[in-house]
Amino acid sequence: MTESWCGPPGGGAGPGADGPGVEWVYQPVEVDLGDGSWAPGRISGWWHDGTGGRWCRLRIARSGQPAHWRRFDPSTVLVLPVSGL
What we know:
five-stranded antiparallel β-sheet
């Protein structure tokens, strides 16, 4: 995978539950798995690093992987409406 699967710059797994600047959300998404297929997922938090990079705490449904922080890339993570159209 690419850098987008890594934690925030400088190591670690993200700002953490009590990290400053985290906006906790419940946002449905579709995630490009890189092999031509897409999977449903959820973003549970947004965070901006010190250089202005935008990160999301992402969980991909039925992947067996825990939620993790990754740099947000709108070409691989499509944000879906929460309600209505």
